[in-house]
Amino acid sequence: MTPDALAAWLAERDVPAYRARQVADGVWGGAIGSIDEMRTLPAVLRAELEAAFRFDTVADTEMKEADGGLTEKALHRLADGALIESVLMHYPARPNSRERHTLCISSQAGCAVGCPFCATGELGFGRDLEVAEIVDQVRFASRRLTDEGQRLTNIVFMGMGEPLLNLDRVLAAIEALNDRRRFGLGARHITVSTSGVVPGIRRLTALGPQFTLAVSLHAARDPLRDVLVPLNRRWPVAEVIEAARDHSKATGRRISYEVTMIGGVNDTELDAEAMADLLRGDHAHVNLIPMNPVAHTPWIASPMPVIEQFASTLRTAGIETTIRRNRGQEVGAACGQLAAERSGEPPAPAVARRRARLVAESAAALLGERSHEPSPVGVGE
Ligand code: SAH
Ligand code: SF4
Hints:
Helix 7 packs parallel to helix 9, helix 8 packs antiparallel against helix 13 and helix 10 (269-279) runs parallel beside helix 11. By secondary structure, the chain is α/β, with parallel strands linked by helices. The strands form 2 sheets. Strands 1-2-3-4-7-8-9-10-11-12 form a 10-stranded mixed beta sheet, covered by helices on one side. It has a two-stranded antiparallel ribbon with strand order 5-6. Strand 7 (154-157), helix 6 and strand 8 (190-194) form a beta-alpha-beta unit. It has helices spanning 3-12, 18-28, 43-52, 119-123, 131-147, 167-178, 198-207, 222-228, 237-251, 269-279, 304-316, 337-342, 348-366; strands at 60-66, 71-77, 83-91, 100-104, 108-110, 125-128, 154-157, 190-194, 212-216, 255-261, 284-290, 320-323. The structure holds S-adenosyl-L-homocysteine and iron/sulfur cluster. The site of iron/sulfur cluster has 13 residues, from helix 4. Residues 111, 117-118, 158, 162, 193-195, 216, 258, 260, 289, 291-292, 294, 334-335 line the site of S-adenosyl-L-homocysteine (SAH).
């Protein structure tokens, strides 16, 4: 609820205006977990709030830890039974960087884009998340951090779903997270990752700088990107890069490109050179991320020396590049893995067909052939 809507709701009940601040402190402060604990409020008002609102849409949550507690994975069961995930990653202070606590959140239950290396993609699309379901992942993590005397420093929309295909709600959630009267996290500390929804990027550009934009690139050549990001058939890589470039020019902000490194698929020297040609001269930063193992793909991460070679080709072309270590593998912290496990094992022949199709398609793509067949999604095909 926006502060204005809350003020109006209280005014209708003749509640003094200063109570709005107390309610907001209870909702956003991180100290309490229910309306009943809002002890600064009179009992009658608490009862009215209880009757009218849900305090938390992710109350039903299961936690798993990895990396010796540095990664905390939350599996949230929503009111209708949909499962989504958020992952809290702790980065201890280092000589030249401060301590960070980054939360990776979901924008949809499942995802319609269907990238074949992604556990969420395999699940298929469930539904868009509500604004409350997006911000409640943040409030949930924030409460855990407050208990430890810590604060959330960064939020990334890199969990389940394609944020630019639920853009109205994602923008409303970011407004709440940004708002000093609500969560109050600066726009620079929020990153939204997209698989390349060009109209969404253009809409963001028109709005001006709201947060850091990350684009999941994965491949610079259309035949291969068609396989890795099926949305590429709709908005090919040149259009995505053009929109990202315009965004960077209009907002003065650097674009982040994510590349999931898949052994023998998108990590060849040819691919590194194609990416260098594509991004040369741009205000861009490339993150190379070894693929997290997921079920039902024939693929695994590229070996580290191959990733280093790829990085070196990009750097030689003057493109700032980092290699990111993936987190939380042992609890399946890649996007959507826990939820995918819960959805049960698909029939073996469907899995075998999916693997064979991916091997054939990526092999053809390596040779530069572009298929115009619509790509079937998931293992239920
Ligand atoms: N749908 C958006 C945001 C969520 S996915 C997008 O695709 O950008 C967030 C990031 O996780 C993307 O860059 C995606 O490519 C990456 N990702 C998905 N599955 C992965 C895996 N198995 N290993 C490594 N990265 C993965
Ligand atoms: Fe969807 Fe992103 Fe996963 Fe692709 S990588 S299926 S766009 S969540």
